[in-house]
Design a protein that fits this description.
This protein has 249 residues and is an alpha/beta fold. The protein is built from eight helices and ten strands. A four-stranded mixed beta sheet has the order 7-8-9-10, with helices on one face. Strands 1-4 form a two-stranded parallel ribbon. A two-stranded antiparallel ribbon has the order 2-3.
Length: 249
């Protein structure tokens, strides 16, 4: 979980620079390769809104003899720290007191269940295109209407979401959003490439994103590949960080 720097007078003991992240990730992941996992590991970055468009999936690590990006080798998701705080208050400071924001918590879980119940539907049939709305309030109203009709909601955008769109994602408790952090390509049509990627079922989307990132990292693929610029917001309400009693360490 990454937060913003502490306010004046607060402790900086647990703050580190983004420049340190590559070293920390390599240190952690090189110690995981020998473990026997029942499924592929997932890397989740819980981020403040201003870091949601940072290229965390392009962090390079060297495991054994090969250098690779974490996004080409692992499932890498991002989540909103602000949303997480509302979903599960004081999870780190008071692990004994699970104080839920019940209305928002319920909304997140219901939206996630609706999404998973639509697993036989192709993503491009229900992902809402942000570019179809010239006003973020209209987008929010559309999502709320879909949710009231028990329809799955998810978002796609061929441009990085602005502050208002991120607020809509959080306010509507949209469980999944896929966007491009860059769209000034010269040799490809980014909208077409994004739509091709969504030609799959929702439970197949993380693998499709990982494949695109892996292809982009391959030799000969430079910046003109959407795999370098994909952001996958994956707000699984059942995927929570471990609770650690730091007082016993």
């Amino acid at each position: 979980m990454l937060g913003t720097p502490p306010a004046h007078g607060e402790s900086e003991g647990n703050v580190f620079s983004l420049k340190d992240l590559e070293t920390l990730m390599e240190f952690f992941l090189t110690r995981q390769i020998y473990k026997d996992y029942s499924c592929d590991p997932i890397i989740v970055f819980v981020l403040p809104d201003q870091l949601l468009n940072h290229d965390f999936e392009r962090i390079k690590i060297k495991i054994r003899f090969y250098e690779r990006t974490i996004g080409s080798n692992y499932y890498v998701y991002i989540r909103s720290l602000e949303r997480f705080k509302h979903f599960f208050k004081d999870i780190h400071h008071n692990p004994e007191e699970k104080q839920y924001d019940k209305p928002y918590n319920t909304q997140c879980i219901e939206n996630w269940k609706l999404l998973n119940s639509s697993c036989e539907i192709q993503c491009h049939d229900f992902f809402v295109d942000v570019s179809n709305f010239n006003n973020h309030n209209k987008l929010l109203a559309d999502l709320e209407q879909r949710r009231s009709k028990k329809k799955a909601i998810a978002l796609k955008s061929n441009t990085p979401p602005c502050v208002n769109i991120i607020e809509v994602i959080n306010e509507s408790a949209t469980p999944v959003a896929l966007w491009l952090k860059k769209n000034d390509f010269k040799t490809i049509n980014c909208q077409e490439e994004l739509d091709k990627l969504l030609n799959c079922k929702i439970n197949e989307l993380p693998e499709k994103v990982k494949q695109q990132r892996s292809e982009a990292f391959g030799e000969g693929n430079k910046q003109e590949h959407i795999g370098h610029h994909l952001a996958l917001l994956w707000e699984d309400p059942y995927l929570l960080p471990p609770q650690i009693n730091y007082t016993t360490i």
